[in-house]
Specification:
Mean pLDDT: 94
CATH class of the largest domain: Alpha Beta
Largest sheet: 6 strands, parallel
Low-confidence stretches: none
CATH superfamily of the largest domain: Glycerate kinase, MOFRL-like N-terminal domain
Structural class: alpha/beta
CATH topology of the largest domain: Rossmann fold
Strand content: 15-25%
CATH architecture of the largest domain: 3-Layer(aba) Sandwich
Helix content: 25-40%
Number of strands: 12
Number of domains: 2
Number of helices: 13
Shape: globular
Distance between the termini: 33 Å
Strand order of the largest sheet: 3-2-1-4-5-6
Length: 360
C-alpha cells in the first residue's frame, strides 16, 4: 500500500505530463514523490497534509498543514490557499493525488459558518457512530471545497484533470474519499482512478497468510467496534483447518456518549475481542489503523488473545468498565506489548482486523 510506488507505476504506465500537481491528505508526501517523473519543468505544485503526517523534503512543492481529526485555523488557511492556487494555475493538465485525512486538514467554511461551528460539527460527527459516508455527506454541506467544490474553484479552465485516489472509506466512493473535493460524475474532463483501498490491503495480508501455510479468508469490516469484534471471532472460529486466518478490511464505528476515556476504534475492537477469546488458547486477534493512528492516539491498534482479558484484571483495571466508557487504550496499556505502535506509516487505507488460530 505504498502510495509512492502506486502513483509511480500508474503514471509511468500512462506516460502523461502535467503542468500542475496537487497532493492532499495523509499520504500526500509519498504521493508527491511518486509523481516526480511525470511533472513538467516548472510545474506548479501544492501539498496539504495533516500536521502529524510525513513532510516532503522537496523545495519544489509548496507545503501547508492543517488539523486532524478536527479542523483548525491552519486548515482554513490551507483551504483559502487552495482556492487561490486553483484559480491561479495556468490552463493545462492537472494531476490531483487524494488520500484520507484531507477532510479535516483543508477547510473553507460555507457562507455563514465559522471555524468554531465547523469544529463543533466535526466533534459531534466523530462521536455520532455514523458511517463515514454519512459523516462526509454532512461535511460537504459545511464547506466550499468539499463535494466537488475544489473542482468548481478551477472555473472550468483546465482541459484535463487526473485524480488518483487512495481510499480509506468502505465502498471506495470518490465522493466520500477526502469528502470528494473533485467529485462530479458529470465532469467529462475529470478522470478518477482508485489506486488502493482496505480491500487491497486485506488481499495482500491474506496472500501472505496463505504463503505461510494458513487457510485465509478475506472480507469487509464495518459496524460498531464491539459488535464487529464478536463477529470477527465467531466467523474465525467457524473456519475449518488447523491454521486459519480471517482478514477484514474497512472501518468500524464507535458511538460516544457521556464521559469517555482514551483509545480508538481499533483498540476498542481488540479489547472487545479479548472478551470473546477469554480463556481460550491458540487464538490471536490484532487490529490496526493502516495510517498508524487509531483515533486521537499515538497507537495504531492492539493485539488480544485468550489471556488478555484476565491480564487486564490482574493489572488492576476493569475491562468491562473500560469498554463501557470507551477506555480501551488505558486498559490495554496495562499489558506490555498489547498496544501496537508504528508511527505514521505514510499511507492510509482504513483499518485491518485479523483473527488467527493455530491448533496444537
Amino acid at each position: 500500500m505504498d502510495p509512492e510506488r502506486l502513483a509511480r507505476e500508474e503514471l509511468a504506465r500512462r506516460g502523461e505530463r502535467f503542468g500542475a500537481a496537487l497532493a492532499l491528505g495523509k499520504a500526500a508526501a509519498a504521493f508527491a514523490r511518486g509523481a516526480r517523473e511525470t511533472l513538467a519543468p516548472g510545474a506548479r505544485r501544492l501539498l496539504i497534509r495533516p500536521h502529524s503526517a510525513a513532510a516532503l523534503l522537496d523545495p519544489g512543492w509548496e507545503q501547508m498543514t492543517g488539523g486532524h481529526p478536527l479542523p483548525d485555523r491552519q486548515s482554513v488557511a490551507a483551504g483559502e490557499r487552495l482556492e487561490r492556487w486553483l484559480a491561479e494555475i495556468p490552463p493545462g493538465p492537472l494531476l490531483v493525488l487524494i488520500s484520507g485525512g484531507a477532510s479535516a486538514c483543508i477547510e473553507a467554511p460555507a457562507p455563514g459558518i465559522t471555524l468554531e461551528d465547523l469544529i463543533a460539527a466535526h466533534r459531534r460527527l466523530l462521536a455520532s457512530g455514523l458511517p463515514i459516508q454519512q459523516v462526509n455527506a454532512v461535511r460537504q454541506q459545511l464547506s466550499r471545497l468539499k463535494g466537488g467544490g475544489a473542482l468548481r474553484a478551477t472555473g472550468g479552465r483546465l482541459p484535463r484533470i487526473l485524480v488518483l485516489l487512495l481510499s480509506d472509506v468502505p465502498g471506495d466512493d470518490p465522493a466520500v474519499i477526502g469528502s470528494g473535493p473533485f467529485a462530479d460524475p458529470t465532469a467529462s474532463w475529470v478522470e478518477t482512478v482508485l489506486l488502493g483501498s482496505a480491500r487491497t490491503a486485506a488481499s495482500v495480508v491474506a496472500a501472505e497468510a496463505r504463503r505461510q501455510g494458513l487457510h485465509a479468508v478475506e472480507d469487509g469490516l464495518e459496524g460498531e467496534a464491539v459488535q464487529a469484534a464478536r463477529e470477527l471471532v465467531t466467523r474465525g472460529r467457524a473456519l475449518s483447518g488447523a491454521a486459519v486466518a480471517l482478514v477484514l478490511g474497512g472501518e468500524t464505528t464507535v458511538t460516544l456518549q457521556g464521559e469517555t476515556g482514551h483509545g480508538g476504534r481499533n483498540q476498542e475492537l481488540a479489547l472487545a475481542a479479548a472478551r470473546e477469546l477469554a480463556g481460550g488458547t491458540g487464538e490471536l486477534v490484532f487490529t490496526l489503523a493502516t495510517d498508524g493512528e487509531d483515533g486521537p492516539t499515538r497507537h495504531a491498534g492492539a493485539t488480544a488473545d485468550g489471556a488478555t482479558w484476565e491480564k487486564v484484571r490482574q493489572a488492576g483495571a476493569d475491562p468491562e468498565a473500560a469498554l463501557a466508557r470507551h477506555d480501551a487504550g488505558t486498559a490495554l496499556a496495562a499489558i506490555p506489548g498489547a498496544l501496537l505502535q508504528t508511527g505514521p506509516t505514510g499511507t492510509n487505507v482504513g483499518d485491518l482486523a485479523v483473527y488467527l488460530r493455530v491448533s496444537p
